[in-house]
Amino acid sequence: MTTLKADKTLDCSGMLCPVPVIKTSKAIKEVQVGEVLQMIATDPGAPADMEAWSRQTGNELLDSHKEGDKFVFYFRRVK
Amino acid sequence: MTKSDPNGPRRLALIASKGTLDWAYPPYILASTAAAMGWEVGIFHTFYGLTLLLKEMQATVTPLGNPAMPMKMPFGPTGFQAINWPIPTAMMAAPGFNALATGLMKKLFKDKGVASIPEMRAMCVEAGVNMIACQMTMSVFGFEKDDFIPECTVAGAATFLEYAADAEVQLFV
């Protein structure tokens, strides 16, 4: 388990590509630069896609892990 | 439209040439995802893809002439849902079959958590994707700009090619 503190949480459970990526890109704009967004997904493609989204947008992927059948991501808004 | 800033965001240039429910997904998924990654995106809607821009979009799907399309039921026990039904081609031509196949695919996609095509299109528009209507196709099929969503722009092949020449990724769907 992680001890990262999130300023906002987005639950994308049950959603498939591309909805988690799109919702994450909207949600990251709802936190301040430097703050942390937690995103939860069940899409099996999410780990690779969210890493790509992080690389492309520059928003830092602080942590990514699995909790049961869910993937949990922490992103820091960079700009 | 050339890129004003060579160090600006990446650009994706897509051609959407098919207006069926199944083939509307690839361009709209790629476009909305690229926009979510901060890319600049333009979709050139040409030939049957032009109908995806209609205000009242009626994208349908049929397994007729579409032999790789899985025919699976979006309800019932898991084993039943896994069956790929061997539908005779003659039955696919029956009145109402197109509507049936379209309804089943919409339900299957909804149940699996995939956005609908009108939702995907709205996400593209909201993300600022440049929705381009092909002028020639409009003239051939008799469409007016007023038939389409107000966010679309009208352009020809040369305009799109100039746009695509400055794109890192260009795809035809």
Explain briefly what this protein structure is.
The complex is a heterodimer of chains A (79) and B (173). Chain A is an alpha+beta fold and 79 residues long. Chain A has helices spanning 19-27, 46-57, and strands at 8-12, 36-41, 60-67, 70-76.
Uncertain segments of chain B are: none
Biggest protein-protein contact in the assembly = A-B, 17 and 15 residues
The second-level CATH architecture of the largest domain in chain B is: 3-Layer(aba) Sandwich
Percent of residues in β-strands of chain A: 25-35%
What's the gyration radius of chain A in Å?
Answer: 11 Å
The total strand number of chain A stands at 4
CATH homologous superfamily classification of chain A: TusA-like domain
Structural notes for this entry:
The complex is a heterodimer of chains A (79) and B (173). By secondary structure, chain A is of the alpha+beta class. Chain A is 27% helix and 33% strand. Chain A has one domain: TusA-like domain (Translation Initiation Factor IF3, 2-Layer Sandwich). Chain A contains two helices and four strands, in the order βαβαββ. In chain A, strand 1 (8-12), helix 1 and strand 2 (36-41) form a beta-alpha-beta unit. Chain A is globular. The mean pLDDT of chain A is 94. With 173 residues, chain B is of the alpha/beta class. Chain B folds into two domains: 11-59 and 116-172, Hypothetical Protein Ychn, Chain: A; 78-111, no CATH class. Chain B has seven helices and five strands, in the order E-H-E-H-H-H-H-E-H-E-H-E. Chain B has a five-stranded parallel beta sheet with strand order 4-3-2-1-5, sandwiched between helices. The A-B interface holds A 14-19, 21-22, 24-26, 43, 49, 52-53, 56-57 and B 10, 29, 32-33, 35-39, 112-115, 123, 127.
